[in-house]
Design brief:
Layout (H helix, E strand, L loop, with lengths): L6 H11 L4 H8 L3 H9 L19 H9 L27 H4 L2 H11 L5 H8 L3 H8 L14 H4 L4 H18 L15
Helix pairs in contact: 1-2, 2-3, 6-8
Amino acid sequence: MSLPLMPKATAVWLIDKTSLSFDQIAAFVGMHPLEIQAIADGEVAIGIVGHDPIGSGQLTREEIARCEGDAEARLRLAQSTVVLPKPKGKGARYTPVSKRNDRPDGIAWLLRNFPILSDQQVGKLLGTTKDTIAKVRDKAHWNSANIKPRDPVILGLCTQTDLNREVQQAIEKAQREGRPIPQAPIDAGATA
């Protein structure tokens, strides 16, 4: 069960303004009945201003009246009519300046060892663009003479868990589409 906003302040208001039992208030705000009794006795929550759950849309007067009439009934939060914004994604992955020169090496390693990964997956893993991935693949990168394929996990560009998850998703997608699954070349220095 979800709890109301500002549970202690809501409890103060319910104690002052309603005839609900301590058990009913405690169940609604997620506190122990003894805490509610201590608030009512003035031992706890001194100076806390009560928060009106009716004004904030968390309760209705009818709900309070229903529970005041039946000591066994429990208060239920009203359905919120406020449309909450969707949380934003993490955004672009930040790579420290000291590791940015290692990115093309990681891209080359992934392209060689996991050709099943899409450019989008490689970009997501390493925090790079499709343009950079294409340049490394086509050997058109400005530093292509110095690119040596190295494991991006060892370089610290991604985690082994993330790499395994992306590879598994790529394999499942290929199986759904009926495409053959390319095998990674066997390399003594490769870790996968």
